[in-house]
Design a protein that fits this description.
Blueprint (H helix, E strand, L loop, with lengths): L13 H15 L11 H8 L3 H13 L3 E4 L2 E5 L5 H12 L5 H22 L2 H16 L4 H18 L3 H9 L1 H13 L4 H19 L3 H26 L1
Antiparallel strand pairs: 1-2
Length: about 240
């Protein structure tokens, strides 16, 4: 089956043990994204468990986005995916374990760094994309759904340009919450001047990244978040 055989460990259900065994197989065999795993049946034989146990284990691994499964083909090692973290964070906010202000505080800490890195490492195409998304936000006008989509994509594009995959996945994990938070923040901006100021922050940030000015990009991102957090506080106070 492989250079390294798998075995069950003590403790936990058979499914949990099978999940651990498959993860161990991936790690000890130095498998990479896209590599094909042995079949469920092969693992079942190696581990001495039934195929339904392995089917459930593979399903759990797929739900965690650790493997890709599909009809008619063998499972493959999956690429990193922030959706599991996104689900966990969204649940934490929905159940009042974490507040949106806390989320925004963490985002601010991370995104000051992603802006700095983007200004250092971005490609010309990425700079054009970031500028284009800032322009798309302005062009969205009163279409809050389009504006929200472009705003989310804007921040993810900056993280992408920073060349740190972990930052990108964490920023992506905030997307479900931004779908609700961005419109809530925009609802507090009742005048054309307020909305223009927010759009100007995005344009300024995009320009600093295009200009390869990491200090200015960090400062521009900080200005953006100070205003955004202030808008969220204003929304919370109006709802109370």
């Amino acid at each position: 089956m492989s250079a390294t055989s798998v075995r069950l460990i003590e403790g936990g259900s058979l499914v949990d043990q099978a999940v651990h065994a498959v993860r161990t197989h991936i790690r000890t065999n130095d498998m990479k994204v896209g590599d094909t795993l042995p079949s469920e049946g092969h693992f079942a034989t190696e581990l001495g468990v039934s195929r339904p146990v392995l089917r459930e284990a593979f399903g759990a691994l797929a739900a965690l986005r650790l493997i890709d499964v599909g009809n008619g083909r063998r499972a493959r090692v999956a690429a990193i995916d922030g959706s599991v973290m996104a689900t966990s964070l969204d649940h934490a906010v929905a159940t009042a374990q974490i507040s949106m202000v806390q989320i925004w505080d963490v985002r601010r800490t991370l995104e000051l760094r992603t802006a700095e890195l983007a200004a250092i490492d971005r490609t010309d195409e990425e700079a054009r994309t970031i500028i284009g998304l800032a322009e798309a936000m302005e062009a969205a006008g009163s279409d809050i759904d389009a504006l929200t989509r472009h705003d989310i994509a804007f921040h993810q594009a900056i993280a992408q340009a920073g060349r740190n995959m972990l930052f990108l996945q964490i920023i992506r994990s905030f997307a479900p919450m931004m779908v609700h938070a961005v419109p809530a923040a925009w609802a507090t901006r009742t005048t054309a001047r307020q909305r223009a100021a927010v759009l100007a922050h995005h344009h300024a940030l995009a320009r600093t990244i295009a200009d390869r000015d990491p200090k200015a990009a960090t400062a521009a991102m900080n200005t953006h978040f100070v205003a955004s957090i202030g808008d969220l506080f204003a929304r919370r106070e109006s709802d109370n």
